[in-house]
Amino acid sequence: xxxxxxxxxxxxxxxxxxxxxxxxxxxxxxxxxxxxxxxxxxxxxxxxxxxxxxxxxxxxxxxxxxxxxxxxxxxxxxxxxxxxxxxxxxxxxxxxxxxxxxxxxxxxxxxxxxxxxxxxxxxxxxxxxxxxxxxxxxxxxxxxxxxxxxxxxxxxxxxxxxxxxxxxxxxxxxxxxxxxxxxxxxxxxxxxxxxxxxxxxxxxxxxxxxxxxxxxxxxxxxxxxxxxxxxxxxxxxxxxxxxxxxxxxxxxxxxxxxxxxxxxxxxxxxxxxxxxxxxxxxxxxxxxxxxxxxxxxxxxxxxxxxxxxxxxxxxxxxxxxxxxxxxxxxxxxxxxxxxxxxxxxxxxxxxxxxxxxxxxxxxxxxxxxxxxxxxxxxxxxxxxxxxxxxxxxxxxxxxxxxxxxxxxxxxxxxxxxxxxxxxxxxxxxxxxxxxxxxxxxxxxxxxxxxxxxxxxxxxxxxxxxxxxxxxxxxxxxxxxxxxxxxxxxxxxxxxxxxxxxxxxxxxxxxxxxxxxxxxxxxxxxxxxxxxxxxxxxxxxxxxxxxxxxxxxxxxxxxxxxxxxxx
Length: 566
Ligand code: NOJ
Hints:
Elements: E1 27-31, H1 47-52, H2 54-60, E2 64-67, E3 71-72, E4 84-88, H3 95-107, E5 111-116, H4 126-133, E6 146-147, E7 170-174, E8 180-185, H5 200-216, E9 220-223, H6 260-273, E10 279-282, H7 289-293, E11 303-304, H8 307-311, H9 316-330, E12 338-340, H10 349-352, H11 369-384, E13 389-393, H12 414-418, H13 462-465, H14 472-485, E14 496-497, E15 504-509, E16 516-521, E17 527-530, E18 534-538, E19 544-547, E20 550-553, E21 557-562
Helix pairs in contact: 5-6, 11-14
Bound molecules: 1-deoxynojirimycin.
């Protein structure tokens, strides 16, 4: 168990076992530290818990682990409100634990990617605390967006922007003498004031933070709200009172401004000074895949999440369209496409696909669970057959559904409260994962669990599924192994579409040379296709029946075929 002291380790660099371009086809596993594994029985996952499970991740067959924030934080937004970017929150451990985690991961040939939150700090970050305490004349206020209010007494927010979590994007301050003062901008919760990236101290601070973690040996950074750092000059009104959605792709004066790219070019210069192939991945919501591609030009970031793919419904036409658009947009800039189906902000894909399409990415109903899991498994095999890098979210390898019936009193998503319970259902995908069939918190830790785990959670546990033919866990393991060894599925930048019935996606991969075809039947009836070769892997039992020179594909399944030649 960790001692949780605050000492900084003496060793500053680690020899990362990085091969060239490892990230281009990597499978990157997202750990949400609070919900992964709890080493000290306080009901909250921690870094030592993650470290203890690294052999599981190695055996699963992933290449890298992305850790959501574990920094010192009041946890107003699950750690995406950072009070000290160079410290580990005591609830997660300390810097020695982070060092041990990075070292152990490298010894297992796993890379570690950490989260960087540069759009906003916590309201407990020293600059912001002092900016408030020192009053309106504090020069530290220039590092955030402080503005006088509108209206006769400044009682109205400076502009009409709304917080992505609901309510105004501005909160009024109280001056040290007790009178109402200026307002400050927060695109997310009031506890997350936005930095002013026009102020040079902000850039200096983040370049220093980058070096701090690079010196610790991390292999990369996931950049939170990478599209939000620069705001349009003058902070102009939106002119519309439509609520901005967290996962929206609209053009906004606070998102996807061209000025962000200079920041990333400077960061890339720093990263490239370090040994090994280290990477940046952008969380960048932009209006189009073409705008996303700008973030991954050769002198900027390495990858960007593909939220268009995540948002696509389970259906051949829509999926083919988004696959083509994704590959086409990345090819000119030479960046790999990325693929993702679940993360800590959206309803798990087993539950999204259990519900009718069109409900968005935060869903409150369980839907048809068997159908959802069947489609989720098929969608995962489809994703893993595509060229580029794939992101998987902890627990999806167990086929976990979202927990849709969490009582309101246990919820912690700040958006749930700011949107008066109409939004903010992200806790459902953050319930601690089950490791064992029974026992306290199903092996998550020796104590409780910060969000209640549902009845029957143990049946989905790692223990229950390990070695069980046909389990979702064994399907993921097999898929990762095939992807790595059989046909270099992650390599290249294109697929060759084959003629197929309307509901079927069929494509050939030529990059590996070994000859490989992927077929997905997204419809609800059996369809006939040619026998492409030998079946390598199928997402469900009975997914394919061979008869008379034809193959019959069952509904909602994906089949991987090994063909004689490319
Ligand atoms: C995106 C993160 O993924 C999400 O969890 C967080 O609430 C917002 N950024 C704000 O940091």
